[in-house]
Structure prediction request, 243 residues.
Amino acid sequence: MLIIKLNATPSTNSFLKKWVQESKAHKSIAVWAEYQTDGRGRMGTKWLSEANLNLTGSVYVGISAHYQNNIFDLNKQVCLAIMDSLMHLKIPKLHIKWPNDILSDNKKICGVLIEPIMRGKKMTGVVVGFGLNVNQEKFDVSLPFAASIKSLTKQKHEIGPLFELIAKNITAAILSDHIDHDRYLRVLYKINEMCDFNTIDGSSFQGKIRGVSPEGKLIVVHENGDSESYEEKMLAFRAFQNL
Prediction:
């Protein structure tokens, strides 16, 4: 795997997508930056990260035909790979918050953005971007549910080796044919627990998470017993509405 380190860049995802498209690369490539000036999150959000304290990086991986019709399996593979990479750091109560944030208990430590690489009409690979809070100890008051590895474990960590481990694990997971659906559900945040939700139309309700559909929709059972599946843009955990 080719690993590129940058001092600064607007977005590691944008940098790597351009690199792959211009070089016609077919092998795995990873890039990380000490500072990302215009990081992007899911659904147009911004990823804010202090320079030299956190990990912002991206990995390009060519994909098999399986993922053409099973896009959400990529989310599962990537999130589980990141969790596996963090296990040795003794971070308490690691969970995956649907669709693909990594939490420690109720604190967000990592966000993921997966973007396709197209050759004509065919998706031939993906760029997996992730932001991991590593050594930052203070966060803006607008981010009450943010945390870092250091704030949780009281230990400082080297960013470069951690990036290499995560990049290799993400690559291996995507290239693997084994999709561990059951494990994804076991570590899913608030599975089988009553939660408060807000919907896109401004309403709110309580419901119990039962799982995730093959298409990546969150399956929620309402208080009246009705089950409904929600796309990401249609539903948000009330506590994490602005995170």
User: Anything to note?
Assistant: The chain has a mean pLDDT of 90. Residues 194-240 form a domain with the SH3 type barrels. fold (CATH 2.30.30).
